[in-house]
Amino acid sequence: MKNEVPVSKIMSTNLVNLNLDDSLYKAEELFKKNQIRHLPVIKGKKLVGILSYTDLLRLSYVDSIDDNLDADNFVYDTLSVKQVMMGKPVFVSTDTSIREVSKILSEREFHALPVVDQHKNLVGIITTTDLIKYYHSLLYEQE
Questions:
Q1: Is the pLDDT of residue 106 over 90?
Q2: Keyword RNA-binding on this protein (predicted)?
């Protein structure tokens, strides 16, 4: 069955990530520049966390009011990526099936999962968008 295809076949490998010692300023810049919603956080090559754009937005509501207010600066200067990220994130391996990834994302209400190799090195990320594109292609291959 096609759903037993490993996630490595459809995951994104063009990774944008944060290092554990990066600033929240850099995180915001990466989210906006790359138009993404999730940033894996690494130390060396090892996955240590994940930061979502929603996590960052929860810190400050002033972005929607005025880009020139100093509240964001205070928050970004006070907190670190390590304090804001989800530590010990749920992840999958490259051989995890697309079916299992779909189950995890739907049951846990996540929108992205980091993908790691056997040494827990970050090698990809799978998002709900990747899954939708995959299932859409399956539906319309038959036409």
A1: yes
A2: no
